[in-house]
Each structure stands twice: as structure tokens, then as C-alpha cells.
Amino acid sequence: MRAIITAVGLAATVACGGPATTPKPADTAETGTPGTTPPTDTDTDTEPTGTDADGDGWTVEDGDCDDSSVWVNPSWPEDTHDDIDNDCDGLVDEAFTGVTVVEYDWDAGAAWLHDVDPLGNLDRTVPLSPAVAPSWALWMKPSLIPGVWVANDSLGVHLIDDTTGVVTELLDLEEIEWPKGIGDFGAFGVETHPGGYYLISTINALVQVSPDGTWDVVAQWVVDLHGDPSHEVAPVDLAIDPKTHEVGLFGIGGGYATWSENDGFVLHKRDDLFYGSPYAWVAGSSNEGGHFALATDVYTGENAVFAWQDGDVTALLAWPNADFTPVSFGMESESGDAYAVANGGWYRTVWRLYADGSGGAQLFTTGKDNDSAGFFGVAVNVEEGG
Length: 386
Ligand SMILES: [Ca+2]
Ligand SMILES: [Ca+2]
Ligand SMILES: [Ca+2]
Ligand SMILES: [Ca+2]
Hints:
Blueprint: H1 10-13, H2 25-30, E1 94-105, E2 110-116, E3 122-127, E4 147-151, E5 156-160, E6 167-172, E7 187-193, E8 197-202, E9 205-209, E10 215-220, E11 235-240, E12 247-251, E13 256-260, E14 264-269, E15 279-285, E16 291-296, E17 303-309, E18 312-318, E19 325-331, E20 338-344, E21 347-353, E22 360-365, E23 373-384
Antiparallel strand pairs: 1-2, 1-23, 2-3, 4-5, 5-6, 7-8, 8-9, 9-10, 11-12, 12-13, 13-14, 15-16, 16-17, 17-18, 19-20, 20-21, 21-22
């Protein structure tokens, strides 16, 4: 069975497995990482809060989906042949099967999904009906089956059936009577929360949308684009860690904040609207956890995928080609590679960015010779094996 699952969508579709059958440690050790010794909690300062019955350093609360086996926790790689969810991402024996990109042609008013396999071969093309128009400001991002995309023609959140290409509007953002000030700049990001709802980030609020289309504002913060010191962060996008369920909000001036159901909104780094670096423009997450964003180093002008953790930000994957501007990306958690779509002149391309930071290479292009179309969103596809 075919499945598109991004880093965010997976936890909502598949619950973490129950008690597993006895794993074979040798299978995991054969993979070579993270080593032959199960990780243990070596932090003597603080005991983990929560239950860690098997003593592998991962509590149930932190995501140990089998607290009776040291061979199962989020630090392990997935063994694709043992019928066990080794890495606790909610998927059993999953493997990377390629990417899906969306192409939009504004002259033709048409859009398509393209499935590209790991070797760069085009597997399938599905026209979207009706066509969903992406925005230069609001990047389309798939996040679940059916996918969730933001489109600019109606400022809507759309559900896309990736088998039939049928597009259904979940929420017309222009129809909303936003609370004062919240919707002034529209919505910038949309993701699927593992709790079974969608989250939309506006410039100064986080909006929870239920599958029935009802919505509620769950967080608000201070935005002053004139540079008043009270300004906190103006997020261009959000990402949701599928393991911790923590939401990352990435500011236009290098700021970073998080939100979770337990802790609410936490500002980790204030935007600097003049010198903030790196400034993010599209965010993502990985099955393995974490918050990432395509961002620009304001001092060097270089683009890269950066990782955010608390207040710290690290350049992970360098963008290899100055002639193309990356517009969206997805992380492939097993290898650590990222896949990014980029448009340059008449060409729309998919790139693979190498996990070791050494650059990347073009994976796919349509080869079409017009400049009225572009690639906008990309989904990393994972299939459960067996
Ligand atoms: Ca444990
Ligand atoms: Ca365990
Ligand atoms: Ca798994
Ligand atoms: Ca497995």
C-alpha cells in the first residue's frame, strides 16, 4: 500500500506500537549505529521525570514506546525486517521510497503531484482538481494523507487526496473573522499536530484547526515590525517535532519560539529585525525529531538547512547551487539527507542535500522549457515495510 507520510503526519496516523515481541539485538547491532551497547542514562544531575522501567535512558513520557526493551527507543535506527517499531516513530519497518513534489503552472491554472523515486525517476504524475495555487509567501506543504496545503488564491487550508488528486477546502482563511490583529498578515505555515488537529501560524498567533474546520487561538505573542523592543518573534513558518510534539516557530529576524500543550508559548530567541541571523523562510521536521528550517545566513548570504534546539542554531546542510533558490524541503530521517525543491529560470528541480553537509546534487527536473511553472512543496515519502 502506498503512503505519503511526512515527518509531521506520521504520528497522527499510526499510534506507537504496544508491547513488542522479543527483538533480536543482533539485528540492530548489525546496522552499526548507534553502536552495540544500548544507551543508558548517564546524567547524574537529574533523574528522568517519568517512567523508565527498562533503564535505557528513555522514559515513556519522552517517547520510549516499549519500556520493557532496551532495544527499542527513539535513539535506535529502524530495522526494516523485524516487525518492530525500533525507533518509536509510530511506523513499523519503514523505509524511504522517494519524494512527492507539487508543480503549479500559473498560465495554465493547473497543478500536479509528481512522485519521484530515490534514484530520481518519475514514478507517477497526478493532476490536482481543482488546482491549488501556491503563494510566493505561503509555501505549500504536504503534511498528512490527505495532505494539507496552504494556498494563496483563497488563503485556504486544503486537503489533498494524493491518490485521486481531489482537493477539498478545509478552511477558507479569508472567511474567518480573526480576533483583532491576528489575521492581518494572513497565515504563513500549516502543519498536522500528532494530537489530531492542524496548526496554522500567523505572524502573531498560533491557531488550532479541528478536522471539522472549527478553530481556536491557542497562543499569541507580541509583534512590532517597526522594531519596538517589545517585539518577540514574527514567524514565517512552523514545524512540529513528531516525537516530542513540540511546535517550533521561526522568526523573520532569526528569532525562535516553541509551543506545546503543556508549556504553552516559550520565546527562546527574540527576532532582531535588522541583523537577525539566520533568517528562516520555510521550516520542517524529521521523523527522528528536531526542528529545522531553510534559512539564510545574513552575514555570508549563504542558504542552508539549519537545526534549531532551544536557543542554539546550527548549519547542517549546505545549499549547493547559487543559480537556484530553494523554496521548500523535507528531511529524510534514516540517512539525515534533505530533499529540497528549487526553481531557476525555466527549470524546476529537486535536490538531494547530503547529510554530511558536503553539498548536494540535482535529483530530478521536469525538463520543461517555460517559466510559467514552478515546484513548491515537497514531501518525503516513507512506506511501512514487511
Ligand atoms: Ca525506557
Ligand atoms: Ca525501551
Ligand atoms: Ca519506526
Ligand atoms: Ca523494525
